[in-house]
Amino acid sequence: MAVPEVAIDAARPARRRFRRRALAAGLALLAATTVLVTATRSQSAMDDGPGLNFGVLGSTCDPDRVAALRASGVRYAEVELTWGAFEPAPGRYDRVYQDRVRQMLDTCAQAGLSVVLTLGLHAAPPWVGELAAGTYRDQAGGLGPADVPNVVFSAAVRDAVRGYLAELDRVVLLNSVAAIRVGTGYNGELGYPTESTSPATARPFWAFDEAAQTGAGLAEDVSVSPMPGWTPGSPTWNGRDVRPEDVRTWFRWYSQSVADAVIWLAQTLRDQGFERDIHLPLAGRGALPRDLTAAVAARLDGRTMATDDGSLEAGLYYPEQLHHIAQRLAQSQSPRQGAVLADTASVDDATAVTARRRSPAEDSCRPEDSDRDLESDPEVVRWSSFRWTIANARSAGLDVIGENPGSPDTPRTGGNALTDSLAEQMLQAPQYARDCGLSLLMWAFEDDLCSAPATLGMFATQIRAVKDDPSGISVEESCA
Prior knowledge:
Number of helices: 17
CATH topology: TIM Barrel
InterPro entries: GH (IPR017853)
Largest sheet: 8 strands, parallel, barrel
Order of helices and strands: HHHEHEHHEHHEHEEHEHHEHHEHEHH
Protein name: Beta-galactosidase
């Protein structure tokens, strides 16, 4: 029996909620183009062994789709849960929703698709945000989104997360899935949220709840602000001038705190017995070194930031964060446990289009990227987002997977006028994944593959083009 899509769409975050149902014009470009490539082998951390594997984001595990997906070369399906639907009240679980989740996972597994599970911590029930320091608060007192709870600083929120994960493991046996995605912000990615309820805050920084500022209700092993009461842009603190090094210390604390929350989530899963892979989705490229330097000099007042993508407010600075995450998790890693993989969510985003047009092109990865001094090399500003993210992840010792950004017409996927259409992404993203040595490329989204005739067949053609051994992959015309 098909599982109704509403089973997991009820409180789905913005990136999934507004998925397009049809591809943009331009599929003829893909249908008429033959891509001649030869994949290079790299040791994969994924279950299917060496080489580049393919999956889909936003899967419904619909019986009418999964067989066609599998036949076309798709091997992984990301299933996104909604915590709010799973546990609408503290300790009260929706058994109907739980049954639907089990059925979805069983259907995908029976079709031979390995499930990558998104926990849905960014789609939390309202009661979590009402816990002590349960909701993020910015420097103007504005509250963060109610469905993205304060897992960074709030001890009460972390206790609620532990209970949810324990019940989820009881219901679905987490070790039955291939991987779990962990994150703290919108779409389950690393970072703080970026939208405030306060009209006075154009650039909200999310470290002004009571726990972060005073330590009341603070999560274990988390530190309070190094400058309690100081707000970004303020020239003084406690009667003295604020120096650039003070601001840098504050931002390092802010950025490391959100990284520590991801570390805590991964370690909590390990403590509960999860031994498979952990995926760390990374949105865009975060702040570049030059942007951070200029912003710190201006005390994070927002007037000198070269980009306006919210990376600093989200606390994203990969040169430090990814090393910190990799080192901390390596300390508790056991030989029987799976890998922690950085997941770059920007394979063929708008920055790739710009970098592709440069002379020489700066869009795709090069073998020496991770050996460069990434914090001082001035050329990195010319790179695509995914090239920068992959270089930082590999420099930190992390394996890397990726996903395309999805339709540029879909809200909150980062698309703009420069972003390739989905048809063009289908040409470019697999080649980028191959050239950068990724072990898995997740396609955004299953609905887009299945919404137009022949689209899945085009995707299957791309899969065959980049895989070493295409035998056994048939071209399915549709999964509608």
